[in-house]
Amino acid sequence: MSKEKYDIFISYRRSAYDTANLIAVKLRHAGYKVFFDVDTLTAGKFNEQLLEVIKGCKDFILVLPQKALLRCQDPEDWVRRETLCAIENQKNIVPIMLDGFSWPQEMPEGLEDLSNYQAITAVRHEYFDMAIERMQGYLKSKAKRPIRQWLGKVLIVLCAILVLLGIGLGVISHIAGVTCKSVATQLTCSMDIMDNLGKDCKEMKEKLAALSNTTEPQTKTQAEKDLLKVVAESERNLATFRKASPTPEFQFNSIENYVLAYYKTEKEELNAFSTYYESMLDDMDKLNLQVKDVVRKETYSQIDLDALSTSISAYQHYLNGFYYGYLGSLSLFPKSARKVHFDMAKKWTSFPNGTPLDLTQEEYEQFQMKELEILQEELELQKEKELKSNN
Fold this sequence. Notes:
Blueprint: E1 8-11, H1 17-30, E2 34-35, H2 38-41, H3 49-56, E3 59-64, H4 78-88, E4 92-97, E5 120-121, H5 128-138, H6 148-164, H7 169-212, H8 217-244, H9 254-262, H10 267-295, H11 302-330, H12 339-344, H13 361-390
Parallel strand pairs: 1-2, 1-3, 3-4, 4-5
């Protein structure tokens, strides 16, 4: 293993690989030196050299999926050994709590104080940029100037060389225009699908509200049928979308990669967009199942319906956050490449109205942060309702 020094060590379980990988990509993109050794960490035998890497880092990020600490009762569990090493060496530990994770009542021996560290909740990919932004406030390491900021200069030098070779700036300009327009088109077509999911979501919430306000048995039965009809339509739409509009894939040659770097866009970020897109489809499937499970019960309570309403609202907030992230990506491209958005977005109705289309990526991230804050408030209110009901 290389003796290279790292700022941050990321510890994770195999079930959380995708999330941990995205965190590593985002932090590297921000200028941190991150240790994320896929080959070693997924090997069966614990590699003692990893302990030396942890000792050399300032920060230790612990990614916690559902039941992540269950296997930490085993003294040979590698997540346990990594975490104990970080604690014993007084590293700055930042737990990342994923969807479904909660601290167990009885913590594994040696890890009892782990829940006292300042943790970050990152339940969805759409909010990773916000979670990473918050995370950087908890880190002791300082970000270095990312290499990507120099790639624009590399592209300028490359263009100059190509001009000297007789290729000309016209060709470079053409490649840049075609590349940016192609990416913007793929992103926008994917958001068109998201708009359709949002329409189904809004109709579902309207039907659920009608059901919640109904007490007369016959009217209630009809309200249930209306809601299930919307769910069935949503399921048909999802099947159509997956067949007709598969998850976007981004493949570029060297020149195209330089063009994207010049516009501060990296392939990893575009692949993250694809991951977000697929997760939104999957979560709509889960939402449909959740609605059917409740409505088809012999008896269900108002708390059940309120929980459904919160789930639907959460999906809408996730969708809004995804939209702001999309606008942030488009903001990096030249205006000519964004024409496809202005043409297609005219018929969109699911996303926040009145959002300015001339902001910076950082400003759109602030909109994302606001969505997250609203969502957290709604989830807390729902928890309070459930606690009162149980008492």
